[in-house]
Amino acid sequence: MSDQSDSFDEFLSGRLDAKIRDDAKNNSAVICDAAPGNQVIYVSESFEEHTGYSPEEAIGKNLSFLQGPASETVAIKKFRDLIHNERIGSVTITNYRKDGSLFRHQCELRPVRDAEGVVTHFIAIQRLA
Length: 129
Description:
Layout: H1 2-15, H2 18-26, E1 28-33, E2 40-43, H3 47-51, H4 55-58, H5 73-84, E3 89-96, E4 102-113, E5 119-128
Antiparallel strand pairs: 1-2, 1-5, 3-4, 4-5
């Protein structure tokens, strides 16, 4: 996973302040494209341990692949609202690991802006609740 991990670190170093970078590196985190579909482009080293999914299984998908019948519709709506309104926010949600087991986590979503202030990506930092 070193190539993907290096790319994750490179992405963080150029776009986020030190506190957020450290938080993303020390937790399960993903970087998603801000384009329609919000595809995952990078995952932190602990993402696989947290979810059971390898980087290869997550990259190119929308994070909704972690959701299932127990995922709260209110939380899903809040995620969509945060993305649509390009706002920072936190959502607690029940999701599914690759093995089908449930996990509840708090997910902090942050838009990542370029030099002109345009949102180009979102970072989701996941902490077990």
